[in-house]
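Hey, quick one: can you model this chain's 3D structure?
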Amino acid sequence: MIRTTLALAAFVASTTIAWAVPEIGKPAPAFTAVDSNGKTHALGDFKGKTVILEWTNDGCPYVKKHYGAGNMQKIQKDLTAEGAVWLSVISSAPGKQGHVDGMGANALVAAQGSAPTAVLLDPKGTIGRAYEAQTTPHMYVIDGKGVLRYMGAIDDQPNTDASTIAKARNYVREAFAAVKAGKPVATTATDPYGCSVKYP
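Sure thing. Here's the predicted structure for all 200 residues.
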């Protein structure tokens, strides 16, 4: 009886983990988080809108590449102007590179001139682990039905050289455009590049 109970518990645990794994064409992992202004957001709040998740860490050279050149800010502004919801997620743990509180996150937004819909604070790494976010940046595109349509790198230039941005193939822009047009996303998953997410 004990063995059966343990086996059942192990099965339930493994099944739960399997359900949480992000998979293209399947519902994106649900989450609820508090943003830099103390407001609570849930993925389900954005039904009908394309949601873009961006894992970020202001101390990471790869993040600095895109923000220093104004590239990330331009993508944020362009896509939110077309109706996207852009959520920047900070999963850095307290004491680790990139960790900020709400005031710190808002100061970064102001200093960078960035334009996310909200900055979500994830100091325990709950959302990051649910999405298996590996790097900063690590990008995800979720359609209006809550289905994951793209995950991976922001583009095809895995380096810290800002001069390569101009020639880059931007996977996030491509995925958003396809979703908006009701077409299949051509490239649904790529290997993310950047600094490792600084989880607890």
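One thing worth noting: The helical segments are 2-20, 61-68, 71-81, 102-112, 126-130, 171-181.
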